[in-house]
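Reading a protein record of the kind used here takes little practice once its layout is understood. An example of such a record is reproduced below.
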Amino acid sequence: MASMDKKDIYEHLAKIYLDASNNKKKKPQEQLRFKRLFVIFLVSTLSLTAILTYYFVRNKSLHSEVALVLQSEVIKINFNFDPAKKEIYSIPLKKLNASKYKHLGFALKKENFNDRISLKIELTNVFNEKSEIYAKDIPHKWRDYKINFLDFKNITDWSSLTNLSFIVEEWNSREKSGIIYIDNVRFIK
């Protein structure tokens, strides 16, 4: 029986030794697997960053615009064409020199989803030169507009602007009453 005990003891010790050596082999394999996953994660992250950076730079989304903000608060034009025929919101420009700027920018939206409406945008200078542009089919959600100064055909001198007006006219609205919101009014270089 003693020999069996020795045999059992040897087998038990061999099993412990083999298990220990198998565990040692597993640890490097687990570490290698972790390193591979880490490298895959790192390459994926860097690739995604490169793609997004290329996309934003190409679409100029990361470039900031140089602008002169004319109205920082949201403008609300609440029009009612009974008896009025138009509603006007004016921003006095006090002989503002806009010759260094190239565009008029703003955001627009209407309150009534069903209304079909256009907004007249009018600029005036000190020489009483007036020019207007229409923003047609104003959406129900905010939309940015960027109008080139060259589109204001009757303005020849941009060094002394006196007034910027937003005008809702009865003949440019399907409904007799409603609300238009204007935000982020600015001149852009």
Remarks:
- The CA atoms of residues 54 and 60 lie 10 Å apart.
- Helices lie at 2-58.
